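It is worth pausing here to work through a concrete case rather than discussing structure prediction in the abstract. The textbook approach is simple: state the sequence, then state the predicted structure, then interpret. We follow exactly that order.
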Amino acid sequence: MTQPTNPYQYQLDEVTRKISENQALLADPEMSELAAQEIAQLQQEKHMLEAAAAQLSDGSYEGAGVASSEEFVNCTMEIRQGAGGDEAKIWGNDLLRMYMRFIETTTFKVEYLDELVIKIKGRTTLEIADGETQLLTAYELFKYESGVHRVQRVPATEAQGRIHTSTASVAVIPEVKKNAVEIKDADLEWSFMRAGGAGGQNVNKVNSAVRLTHIPTGIVVSCRQERSQVQNREVALELLRGQLWEIQEEKRLSVLGKARSAIGRAQRAEKIRTYNYPQNRVTDHRINQSWYSLETIVEGDLQKMLLEVRKGLETLEREAVTSPPHQSNV
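Step two, the predicted structure:
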């Protein structure tokens, strides 16, 4: 049996390197005391990382054996309207249209699973600098889009010309292998209904649409895109596995005692980006960066923004992982 990849190896290597650098400063009378304190903190962090890695390798840690994010290829993107009534619903559809237009310019494949839920599959090559390209999976590129997207604009139905603020949340869930997350049949509650909409008599007259509730967590997923109930059941289970993996991943990251889980893994309640129409501005609040090309961005010109957000958040993630633990003076 192949041993799971150690997701903590990068952090361990960084900590070991910093310990060596500080050990070289012990001979310096002016730096020795500070270096000794730094080494003690780094040793503590190293022991914590080694313990987490050991738990993962022997299976004693909950969720052991789940693939690291680098191994994921396909992902599901789900968009839900937030505050703002009808305008929020329109904004959710605008976001989906924005992503779909960008996907059309890549080699990704996409399929609809439900209303405002799509599956993005494959890899694509993007130019990250002059003449330099990078091959990215769907999950690698879109995983940082999870969170609340806020829009500030004058709705088409607003007679007084007042600016309204509406929100929609985006969740990007990786496609995980069937054996990565254990799902017990006793924990599942199924319901079936007619799918409705386009698709012919089979879709409209047969209970092919499914809704799946995971009783222990309360997670509810649904799928009605496929023509058969069997296919929709498989898709619903796939969506559930991805969401359960996210819960396990948060638990695993919490072993480090770091804020890393909140960086680039934004929950639905976290506002990550604002689209301000009057100022023609898009601002990502996690990296505090703005782009003054809102009109082209919402039309699908996302490559520059997606790559800069990815680079900025990966930098913050590395800093959160490798920085010494905070020492309170209280």
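Step three, interpretation. The domain at 185-254 is CATH 3.30.160.20 (Double Stranded RNA Binding Domain). Residues 20 and 39 are 9 Å apart (CA to CA).
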